[in-house]
Design a protein that fits this description.
The protein contains one helix and 22 strands. The chain is mostly beta strands. It has one domain: Distorted Sandwich (Beta-galactosidase, Chain A, domain 5), CATH 2.70.98.10. A hairpin with a 5-residue loop joins strand 14 and strand 15. The chain is globular and about 55 Å long.
Length: about 290
């Protein structure tokens, strides 16, 4: 089911399947900012990553000596959510643990995703509540893709990514098993700007574990159009697109990352894993602003 939020500035659409953001359009010019999915390129638009971010080595992990199987990015993106609230400014979706999830992930949880529209900004909120009788563990993350370029007469090289403060940070890449190589490479040296080039993703996703910025923007050097993502509190960030002349770029704030290639597959000690005590709630939010 597709649900719509709109105001005088923006119109957004959200699919209850996966609680996935499906469209962001500016009302003034009816311009679509969100990648619209193409199975020949990348069939998704803005999937929710839960209860893992990225891939597990061999799609396998262990909890208290028992092994479980999970596909890349977890199961939430491929499940129907219940629509709990619809009004002029807000959509709310929930996913409750069930027999299907318990086979893959042995924790009882309630996952809530909210979309709230204010002027030129869309806030996406995540809430995870522990309904189990003990501690639960999870990761969660966003994966929105944005059209690149926005207009046919533009080219990819017209665009660049800008952090809100200068960064000195290494980047990590995925190996052939789509888990993170233990070796990192220099990425930014007291810099804010990342130019978009045809081969920027030739080695796959750019994974940043130590960013200090609280926002990242996709900008065009020839005009003032801008997509800004504010992600206060998210400890990790992914930047991803297709390896050659990508028609989109994904800007991905994460609480968690893929396995490293030297992993022991223990879920509770996995890098970036979040822990909740009984009845405790985790809350986070990121905001997409179209300027």
């Amino acid at each position: 089911m597709i649900n719509v939020l709109e105001n005088d500035v923006l119109k957004i659409e959200v699919n209850s399947f996966g609680a996935q953001l499906s469209s962001i359009k500016t009302k003034k010019d009816n311009l679509e900012y969100l990648w619209q999915g193409d199975k020949k390129v990348w069939g998704r638009k803005s999937p929710l990553l839960f209860p893992i971010v990225g891939k597990l080595l061999d799609n396998e992990y262990y909890i208290d000596g028992k092994d479980y199987q999970l596909e890349q990015h977890g199961f939430a993106r491929d499940m129907e959510f219940e629509v709990k609230e619809i009004n002029k400014a807000k959509l709310e979706y929930t996913l409750l643990f069930n027999q299907v999830t318990l086979q893959k992930y042995p924790y009882r949880f309630l996952l809530t995703v909210t979309y709230e529209l204010t002027d030129n900004s869309l806030s996406v909120g995540y809430k995870v509540k522990n309904l189990d009788s003990g501690d639960i563990y999870f990761s969660i993350g966003a994966h929105p893709g944005f059209n690149l370029p926005l207009h046919k007469e533009e080219k990819l090289e017209d665009y660049y990514i800008e952090f809100d403060i200068p960064e000195t940070v290494d980047k990590y890449h995925l190996n052939n098993d789509f888990v993170i190589s233990v070796d990192s490479m220099p990425f930014l040296d007291n810099e804010k700007i990342v130019p978009m080039t045809k081969d920027i993703f030739s080695e796959g996703a750019i994974i940043l574990l130590d960013v200090k910025s609280n926002s990242i923007s996709l900008k065009n050097k020839n005009n003032s159009k801008e997509v800004c993502i504010k992600y206060d509190g998210f400890p990790y960030l992914g930047i991803w697109g297709q390896p050659d002349n990508s028609p989109f770029v994904c800007l991905e704030p994460w609480y968690g990352v893929a396995d490293f290639e030297n992993t022991d597959k223990q879920y509770k000690t996995k890098k970036g894993i979040q822990k909740l005590k009984e009845l405790e709630e985790f809350k986070s939010k990121y905001t997409i602003s179209i300027n």
